[in-house]
Amino acid sequence: MLTLSVGSLCDVVGGELLAGAETTMVNGLAVDSRAVTPGAAFVAFGGEHADGHEYLGAAIEAGARALVVTRDDDAFRELVATSRRQDVALVLVDDALAAVQALAMHHRERLICPVIAITGSTGKTTTKDFVRSVLGTRLKVVATEGNRNNELGVPLTIMEANAETEVLVIEMAMRGPGQIAGLCDIARPTAGLVTNVGVSHVEVLGSEEAIASAKGELVRTVPERGRVFLNGDDGWSTVLAEMAEAAVTRYGVGEACDVRGDEISVDESGNATFTVIAEQGTASVHLNVPGRHNVYNAVAAASIGLYLELSLEDVIAGLEASSFTKMRMETFASASGVLVINDAYNANPTSMKAALQTLAEIRSEGKRVAVLGDMAELGSLSELAHFRMGEYVAELGLHALVTVGDRARRIAEGAAAAGMPADAIRPCATADEASEVLDDLLGEGDVVLVKASRVMGLERVVDGITQPHV
User: Fold this and answer.
1) Is 406 exposed, middle or buried (0-12, 13-18, 19+ CB in 10 A)?
2) What pLDDT, on the 0 to 100 scale, is given for residue 397?
3) CA gap 119, 360 in Å, rounded
4) Separation in Å, CA 420 to CA 394, 415, 424
């Protein structure tokens, strides 16, 4: 947890103390007044839809000791002056985000624990969840929560670590060149893992080569005494390995991988059982999340656990006890007896294909239904990628396909072109329209997968399945 005096805070962020005492101590930081804990600093972000400056009073009531603002206003000074508490300071900065990042860098310098950074085109959140569970069997872990994987979320995660933290696990997202490098400047990872290089973000970066270079920003940052973990079965792993100064551990299912999964089978729920093979020995593991592709995420986590000298037994226990971020292959049964696979948080061709394979492998006496929305940021590849996804749906022999969005209509066209019956394909313009279709389509014993890029908001479809229209 961030701990420093208001005077030091001003020095770190280049701020001006408008009210209060330099000696006031700050413990913790929040950018949402509802998340303020007693003693914390509250940083007010201006915004188009919400302005943190309007919640300064709420932050004081919640116990904030420092209010970090980006404009000087007599009302703010008056708020502090009339507060029932005398330990509130008011600090003016030029840029709220830059202030948070500076405080995170200051805090990072005082941490002595290993810092593991994870990025990749697909699977980084699930891998992070596996890593947290594995390391948590023996170590005190602080890890990225929710979608805190960007230029604001990474600093906030860093500042949650304290002297008792034994390992810090940070997920890093990327929307353009230089972003991961910037996050690495703040986090200074001692080890880094790249799950894979795919075509997500090609709209922004232009090519897979550019995406690999952007992911390589993490690889190049890891110091020589650290460790880089790469998917040994990914075609870009050799290129990425050449960028590394640190030693490289390869994980995957191929025989050349240092830590690998073998003898993979999938049960009636779609969950994988496999054997972990590593220098430390071999052991069987059964995952509690559906998807054959999660073997890769699991052996990635195993490789990090073994690197940090956990026993193979602890690694297996952590893998089998893992819990996962919502809307990532989240599986549950609705009140009407429909098995729902909610993977609506994000999508690209690789992850959507893996999710569809999982749907096809789940044993069910009912129908298997795919609800697929637009995949974003594919640029010139978008039309073809969506069309080919439809071909894959037809190839799997699913009972029904519901598409949502303009781009996803090409999925429907691809499925039709590959021979899927016309009456099994239902293109929809909106999530609400899809929900109405599913009301009539789904019944007890059916299995439905819901997947799309986050901008589509297909969690509304999931809500519609659990609360059908009347």
Assistant:
1) exposed
2) 95
3) 28
4) 5, 5, 7
Percent above pLDDT 70 for the chain: 97
| Nearest alpha carbon to residue 336 among 434, 437, 446 | 446
Q: Residue 82 class from Cβ within 10 Å (0-12 exposed, 13-18 middle, 19+ buried)? A: exposed
Share of the chain above pLDDT 90, in %: 79
| Tens digits of residue pLDDT in 377-425 | 888 889 999 999 999 999 999 999 999 999 999 999 999 999 999 999 9
Split at pLDDT 50, 70, 90, the class of 215 is: confident
Compute the CA torsion angle 395, 400, 402, 407 (nearest 10 deg). 20
How confident is the model at residue 122, as a pLDDT?
87
The number of angstroms, rounded, from the C-alpha of 92 to the middle of its chain's C-alpha atoms is 32
**Helical packing angle, 312-320 and 124-135, nearest 10°:** 130
**Which tokens sit at 426?**
């239902």
